[in-house]
Amino acid sequence: MINFHSIDKEFDKKHIWHPYTSMLNPLPSYGVTHTNENKIYLDTGEELIDGMASWWSAIHGYNHPRLVSAIQSQASTMSHIMFGGITHAPAVELCKKLINITPKSLDRVFLADSGSVSVEVAIKMALQYWISKGQTSKTKLMTAQKGYHGDTFAAMSVCDPINSMHSMYQGFLPEHIFVSAPKAKFDEQCTDTELQLLEQAFVKHHHDVAAFIIEPIVQNAGGMNFYSPSYLAKLRQLCNKYDVLLILDEIATGFGRTGKMFACEHANIEPDIMCIGKALTGGTMTLSATLTNQKVAVGLSEGEAGVLMHGPTFMGNPLACAVANASINLLFENNWQAQVERVNLAMSALKRCESLSSVVNVRTLGAIGVVEIDKVVNVAKIQKFFIKKGVWIRPFGKLIYIMPPYVSSSADIRELANAIYDAINEQQY
Ligand SMILES: *Cc1c(COP(=O)(O)O)cnc(C)c1O
Fold first, then answer.
1. Residues with CB under 6 A from ligand 1
2. Quick check: is 278 catalytic?
3. Which residue's CA is the nearest one to ligand 1's atom 11?
């Protein structure tokens, strides 16, 4: 039964860490009692239209009956079993599906438990591949500024150095090679200068570089940068030419969010290694995967390194795999492309914000909408206003952005856009 009693927020504030906030002076946390479709219900009685899909994950909205029943029936059969020396139908079915919907050459799957861990595994695969080939100098990664790949140490070492405070962890973080963030926008072509600079970095560093890692098309937590497919296409060429593996982090962009099933399809390229997570289970449970091709999988196993030394306790968790299977089935049954196009169309309501003097830029791609303003948002203040307006939107930095569940009605998306317009117009940030 739903518990409508108010939640002990004093205890929460004193004892529990929330993401990216201080223990001494935390941002407020709102008490949520339950969710349904694209709605979030607070213990203070408000019903909120969700603009965040719980950080890219709840693509079908909340409490979808098909996802709920997948979890329930799997729970009554087998919630978990170790994956060492054992296999099971939910995992096999999921890996078949993943091989089917991801780029053709990716046919080997490692199941992990969160996005960050899938990035750790991708990095291990790349390093081990070159060790197996006897190329012991290839121990570095190359990446672009403004990236975000997770909060564990290896993942953090390839996040934007300033955003993720590399200087604080000096001595703990390996130092990798950073190139400029992609400049050309999604609907532009890269200039020759931009591509030449990128190639110069390969010329200079490729002897030391195992892999280039980047989020394809949308650099999300590092600035919601929608960049040119021509950048990715060039990156693929350069990786081939200079013997560097390409890791694409599709954790945020995967499962239709950018208007393609995977964002690399905008550039018609295939990575050597790909990370997926977030929407994989439709926002119900934590699960991620690292996929790779035959070249890397066989290459890393052939050499002296042999086995891949990674095996999380909850690897291949049957509950998570079962609900991931149901979520992928739903994507196709719901005709995700039409859903995302409709969300995109409704988000054109954000364009009205362009008339406000403090708005720097409004951009949308697939089911992602971004309003960039001219100063860092006061999150506590703007959220209070948003709650009053009946929406759940959580900005960061100078970015007020939405990536609603694909099932959101056009009217609800216009409500989200109106709330953003009003917040800026009434200077509630
Ligand atoms: C969220 C995210 C991660 C980290 O995933 P977690 O599940 O939070 O560990 C990594 N890369 C990208 C692009 C992400 O958006």
1. 114-116, 119, 148-150, 215, 220, 249, 251-252, 277-278
2. yes
3. 149
**118 CA distance to ligand 1 middle (Å):** 9
Q: Give the architecture-level CATH label for domain 69-333.
A: 3-Layer(aba) Sandwich (3.40)
Same fold, 9-60+337-425 and 69-333: no
- Residue 112, pLDDT > 70, answer yes
20 catalytic? Reply is yes
Between CA 251 and CA 215 the distance in angstroms is 8
In this structure, the number of other CB atoms found within 10 A of the CB of residue 152 comes to 14
Tell me which of 148, 401, 406, 429 is the catalytic residue.
148
Tell which one of 148, 250, 285 to mutate to probe ligand 1, the residue whose CB is within 8 A of the most ligand atoms: 148
Q: Which atom in ligand 1 lies closest to the alpha carbon of residue 288?
A: 7
Q: Which two tokens stand for residue 299?
A: 């290459």
Please identify, in words, the CATH class of the domain defined by 9-60+337-425: alpha beta
Question: pLDDT by residue (tens digit) across 326-380?
Answer: 999 999 999 999 999 999 999 999 999 999 999 999 999 999 999 999 999 999 9
* Rounded distance from Cα 253 to ligand 1 centre (Å): 10
**Atom 3 of ligand 1, nearest CA residue:** 150
Burial of 350-366, coded b for 16+ CB within 10 Å and e otherwise, reads: bebbeebeebeebbbbb
Residue boundaries of the structural domains of the chain: 9-60+337-425, 69-333
The pTM for the full model equals 0.97
